[in-house]
């Protein structure tokens, strides 16, 4: 395929990966809401869900490598893992830490405050993209980032002022905010780091590998890290409840969606960018706002004017940023 045909194909891959990520994030948020819906506290241990999703991601990535790249490439990638430990261990640790922090943030904060604060990862992603990838931000992109933050606040704001309420006292709320902002920092750095790694093809010391190989290698580190975290953090509860205690069809679906999300994110890092990934997540939150209002019945009077304005701002900011 010549240069004239390569550009439209690359653009199509970028659009499709972002659309898939938006759909996956929307489904994951709604299904996770369902798992908390009946009693408030999850019957399962969140850290085990993270460990299982990393294991599923490893199996799926390995299967894709065998199917698409062949057995020879698979074993070559496996032999490369020890020499890649330094490059791969850091983002693996950061993503496991991030996932555990986000579950803790959901526990400590009201859903509205959590969802608003978690969007700080868009700004941290842009910051680390500038630092690690030397990405320049145009005036249009800077305005898009500001518009996106304002739009997300409007989408999640509530007329009765309950958005500021937490689940406990001010100390608990402050802890929750620190947890979410820390997760945003780890997400921004790990995302930019992985984007740089996925886009390094054939440079000195970094063999050219497919995104599925890189994802498989990454999961080889994240699985033991996630298992260690589960045993260390929730060992007492696991001793009485068991590793799979509280699992049902909803939990299995959460694990599947998280694993699929990891594969889609890898494709986004390769064909789009970490910042555009965050915009896709923001679009999914707008989808969730609509779904919780009109599908799950959490809103009695429909969406307010400022929520509609917020959705328009987010969608407009997404297209403005993508088109620079």
From TrEMBL:
**Keyword Membrane carried by entry:** yes
Classify the main location.
membrane
Which UniProt key words apply to this protein? Membrane, Signal, Transmembrane, Transmembrane helix
What GO molecular function terms would the record report?
Answer: pyrimidine nucleotide-sugar transmembrane transporter activity
> SUPFAM superfamilies, from UniProt?
Multidrug resistance efflux transporter EmrE
Membrane topology is: Multi-pass membrane protein
Q: Where are the transmembrane segments?
A: 112-133, 140-157, 177-194, 215-232, 244-268, 275-297, 303-322
Superkingdom assignment: Eukaryota
Q: Which residues form the signal peptide?
A: 1-27
Cellular component terms per the entry's GO annotation: Golgi membrane
Locations listed in the record: Membrane
The chain's coiled-coil residues are none
**Entry keyword annotation includes DNA repair:** no
Q: According to its UniProt record, which protein family does this protein belong to?
A: Belongs to the nucleotide-sugar transporter family. CMP-Sialate:CMP antiporter (TC 2.A.7.12) subfamily.
Quote the NCBIfam families the UniProt record gives.
nst
In Swiss-Prot or TrEMBL terms, this protein is called UDP-galactose transporter
Q: What organism is the protein native to?
A: Ostreococcus tauri (Marine green alga)
Q: What is the lineage of its organism?
A: Eukaryota, Viridiplantae, Chlorophyta, Mamiellophyceae, Mamiellales
């Amino acid at each position: 395929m010549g240069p004239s045909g390569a550009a439209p194909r690359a653009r199509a891959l970028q659009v499709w990966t972002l659309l898939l990520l938006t759909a996956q994030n929307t489904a994951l948020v709604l299904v996770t809401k369902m798992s908390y819906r009946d009693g408030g506290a999850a019957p399962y241990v969140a850290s085990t869900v993270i460990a299982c999703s990393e294991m599923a991601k490893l199996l799926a990535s390995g299967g894709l490598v065998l199917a698409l790249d062949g057995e020879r490439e698979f074993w070559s990638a496996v032999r490369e893992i020890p020499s890649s430990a330094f490059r791969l261990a850091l983002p693996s640790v950061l993503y496991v830490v991030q996932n555990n922090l986000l579950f803790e943030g959901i526990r400590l904060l009201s859903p509205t405050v959590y969802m608003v604060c978690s969007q700080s990862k868009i700004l941290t992603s842009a910051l680390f993209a500038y630092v690690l990838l030397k990405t320049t931000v145009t005036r249009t992109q800077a305005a898009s980032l500001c518009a996106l933050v304002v739009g997300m606040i409007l989408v999640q704001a509530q007329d009765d002022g309950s958005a500021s309420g937490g689940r406990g006292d001010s100390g608990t709320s402050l802890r929750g905010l620190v947890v979410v902002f820390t997760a945003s920092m780890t997400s921004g750095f790990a995302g930019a780091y992985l984007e740089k790694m996925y886009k390094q093809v054939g440079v000195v010391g970094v063999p050219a590998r497919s995104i599925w190989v890189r994802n498989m290698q990454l999961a080889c580190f994240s699985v033991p890290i996630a298992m260690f975290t589960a045993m260390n953090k929730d060992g007492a509860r696991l001793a009485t409840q068991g590793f799979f205690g509280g699992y049902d069809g909803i939990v299995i679906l959460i694990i599947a969606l998280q694993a699929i999300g990891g594969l889609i994110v890898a494709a986004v890092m390769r064909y789009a960018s970490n910042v555009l990934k965050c915009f896709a997540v923001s679009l999914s939150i707008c989808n969730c706002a609509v779904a919780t209002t009109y599908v799950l019945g959490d809103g009695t009077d429909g969406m307010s004017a400022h929520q509609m304005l917020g959705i328009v701002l987010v969608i407009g900011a997404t297209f403005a940023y993508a088109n620079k």
